[in-house]
Design a protein that fits this description.
By secondary structure, this protein is an alpha+beta fold. The chain is 21% helix and 16% strand. A six-stranded antiparallel β-sheet has the order 8-7-6-15-14-11, with helices on one face. It has a four-stranded mixed β-sheet with strand order 9-10-21-18, sandwiched between helices. A three-stranded mixed β-sheet has the order 1-2-5.
């Protein structure tokens, strides 16, 4: 792979720590600090232990521990591991990863390899690492909220009616919310009002003020799987999408096409004719087939290589894959989504990572994560029509609040949304993301002290989570995937778009710019300073972030490599060209092969929110 030179302010992903992670025996999750109107019935009144609290746990606590062996796939370094757990009250989830059992990569991929990703390439590492053991205790999600409709007024079996509960009003519903808080659990009946009439409140702009603009129709856009560029959350599924509750059998022709690609580009141990016979027989018998570890890793990486809207594809061979295809239950998906954030963050040295959960199969849908990213900030609608937080997430926020998620009080601009996960049975559940799993960067400017007083921040890992992955006719509906941010994605889009945080007017005012006419270029000047602040803040905190000039040059290097390999390189010009200073980057000055919707492996259109998620 090509070595990429880095400037002094860029952050290549460094080599892994030389010592295995060893948590103290008393490691316990800390409770999520979400304000509540009162403690849930039956909740433990004792304080939770923090992640670094020393030993002192009781014998009962020590015995409540789930230990499992999980193999990793793809290049492995340091303490990287896949963790698994069952969300049971009072059970600490511990995964022990034995390097002697880790599968090595195929012959063509073995030997020294360079870890690369958007923003840089790391030092060489030897994949033939000696056997060693790493023990990691990963906390369970602090609160799992389950919304189950209760017919009529009768509470669910075993549930505890809410104090002072009365018969629900006509048209209303009752939901049972099961919360798991530390060692105790509680069941509460929450009454949900009937759906309100369509809002007549005028649309709001990013500042929360009523806007005279007419909102354009929702696009069926899928965000860049590396940078998170785009707004994929909350869009309805595109026309013609099959019913997700009834997955179709695997297509033998698609399977064969993929396998021939695997054998054309790599050297698996099993001969191709034998593997084809094996796959055909399995499809004939059960309607689907199982990818080998090698096929899965190859398929995930090529899906990234094929992503026409991603500018960071130079690093597709460095993707780290967590193979968790045995997990179906929403509690496990939530737990391992949190594990994904931890594995990818590494204190700011972001690593391109994908976690693959159970696939769709005839008669058994795979799990689905409804959030467009694992970390998103809530958009709270106010009575006057304004929005506190991210207006782009207002609909999703309303949806999870309707399912029973308690809004933080007071509502903030950067409240992390819960994960909404649908299991194979079609029931959707909510899970809070532990605060210590969300790495954030407080934003400040290198020259203007007032910028820090705005109280802005942004999360470090853009983990796309609602885009299904299709490999060889098999669909993995839950395969969260991250690279790292591009500076303009945060500064020129998330914080600047008028339907997002819309900060340019405030920045321009603080800079003393003349905003009476767009001809003064006040928007352009404010955007440059906003992007400067974002880049400076990530650099100052040692968090990996690519800049649009360097990444554009690297995309041209990727394009040259693909052409030299005899492969087409489809690209969506409107997504590849940065949203700021486009003509100053080399990607602006040429055309590309048109995106091919039939190209596989690929990321598919994102999942939409289901109107009746709040009904289970």
């Amino acid at each position: 792979m090509t070595t990429v030179e880095h400037g002094k302010n860029s952050h290549p992903a460094p080599a892994a720590p030389k010592r295995a992670v060893d948590r103290p025996p008393g490691f316990r999750p800390s409770p999520t600090p979400r304000p509540m109107t009162g403690p849930p019935p039956g909740a433990s009144s004792g304080p939770g232990q923090g992640p670094g609290q020393p030993s002192g746990e009781s014998g009962a606590e020590r015995s409540g521990r789930s230990v499992s062996m999980v193999p990793l796939v793809g290049p492995v370094e340091g303490p990287a591991q896949a963790t698994t757990a069952v969300a049971r009250p009072g059970v600490e989830a511990t995964t022990v990863v034995d390097r002697s059992r880790v599968r090595q990569t195929p012959p063509r991929e073995q030997g020294p390899a360079r870890e690369q990703g958007p923003g840089g390439s790391g030092p060489l590492r030897d994949q033939q690492a000696p056997a060693e053991r790493a023990t990691v205790a990963t906390p369970l999600p602090e609160r799992a909220t389950v919304a189950n409709p209760v017919p009529g007024t009768a509470p669910a079996p075993g549930s505890t009616p809410a104090p002072g509960s009365q018969r629900p009003a006509a048209g209303s519903r009752e939901h049972v919310l099961n919360r798991v808080d530390g060692p105790g659990s509680a069941t509460t009946v929450v009454r949900v009002a009937p759906p309100a009439e369509p809002r007549t409140t005028p649309p709001v702009d990013g500042r929360g003020a009523p806007s005279s603009r007419v909102a354009p129709p929702a696009e069926s856009t899928s965000g860049c799987p590396v940078t998170g560029h785009g707004r994929s959350g909350g869009h309805p599924p595109p026309p013609g999408v099959a019913d997700e509750r009834d997955p179709a059998p695997a297509d033998p022709a698609a399977a064969e096409e993929f396998l021939r690609q695997v054998y054309a580009e790599t050297e698996p141990a099993m001969p191709l004719p034998e593997r084809l016979r094996q796959v055909r027989a399995e499809i004939d018998r059960v309607g689907t087939y199982t990818h080998t570890t090698h096929e899965l890793v190859f398929g995930t990486r090529v899906a990234w290589r094929n992503s026409a809207r991603c500018i960071g594809r130079l690093y597709w061979q460095s993707l780290q894959v967590r193979d968790l295809r045995h997990l179906h239950d929403p509690a496990d998906i939530a737990q391992e989504s949190v594990g994904h954030l931890r594995a990818a963050t590494r204190g700011g040295r972001i690593r391109s990572t994908m976690t693959v959960f159970a696939p769709d199969a005839p008669g058994r849908p795979g799990p689905r994560i409804r959030n467009d990213q694992l970390v998103r900030y809530a958009g709270h609608r106010n009575p006057d029509g304004t929005v506190t937080g991210d207006p782009g997430q207002a609909d999703f926020t309303d949806h999870v609040v309707g399912m029973g998620w308690p809004r933080p009080q007071p509502a903030g601009r950067f409240d992390v949304l819960p994960l909404l996960i649908t299991g194979p049975d079609g029931r959707s559940r909510l899970f809070d993301v532990p605060p210590d799993a969300v790495h954030e960067v407080p934003l400040r400017h290198p020259e203007h002290p007032w910028f820090a007083r705005l109280g802005l921040r942004w999360h470090s890992v853009p983990a796309i989570s609602n885009m299904p992955l299709e490999i060889g006719g098999i669909v993995y509906p839950a395969a969260p995937f991250n690279g790292w941010y591009l500076d303009t994605e945060v500064g020129a889009r998330n914080l600047a778009d008028t339907d997002r945080y819309d900060l340019l007017p405030e920045i321009a005012k603080r800079l003393g710019l003349d905003t009476r006419s767009v001809r003064t270029m006040w928007r352009d000047r404010a955007m440059v300073e906003l992007v400067r602040a974002v880049t400076y803040s990530f650099d100052a905190d040692g968090v990996t972030m690519a800049d649009h000039h360097s990444e554009s040059e690297r995309f041209m290097a990727f394009l040259a490599k693909e052409e030299a390999a005899g492969r087409r390189c489809p690209a969506d010009w409107s997504w590849i060209v940065p949203p700021m200073s486009g003509s100053q980057t080399p990607v602006f000055h040429r055309y590309y092969d048109e995106p091919d919707r039939d190209l596989r492996p690929a990321f598919l259109e994102p999942h939409g929110l289901r109107p009746h998620d709040d009904q289970g």
